[in-house]
TrEMBL record:
InterPro entries on file: Kazal_dom, Kazal_dom_sf
Boundaries of every Kazal-like domain copy: 37-92
Tree of life domain: Eukaryota
Coiled coil: none
Cross-referenced Pfam families: Kazal_1
N-terminal signal peptide: 1-21
Protein name: Kazal-like domain-containing protein
Amino acid sequence: KQTSTALGLLSIFTLCFYVLTTQERGTLTTALLLQDVCSEFRSQFEAGGRLSCTRENDPVRDSSGKQHINKCLMCAEKFREGNLWQQNSSFCL
């Protein structure tokens, strides 16, 4: 019985620790997520300083609530702002 109690307490501690560290790393996680989301457009932007995006209607919305026509246009805006690495919000596709 003591073993199961100890395992239960360890499980609760582990879950709480995971939640706290995940919240603290949110900014880094978001930056890495945005980096991955926009990686397919990075070389085109770096080569010419801009992206040539279509107006294809495939909406994406970031966590600030701003809706973009498509992922390419969202990444173009993020690259132009120069904030790709410093985002403090999450991104949802």
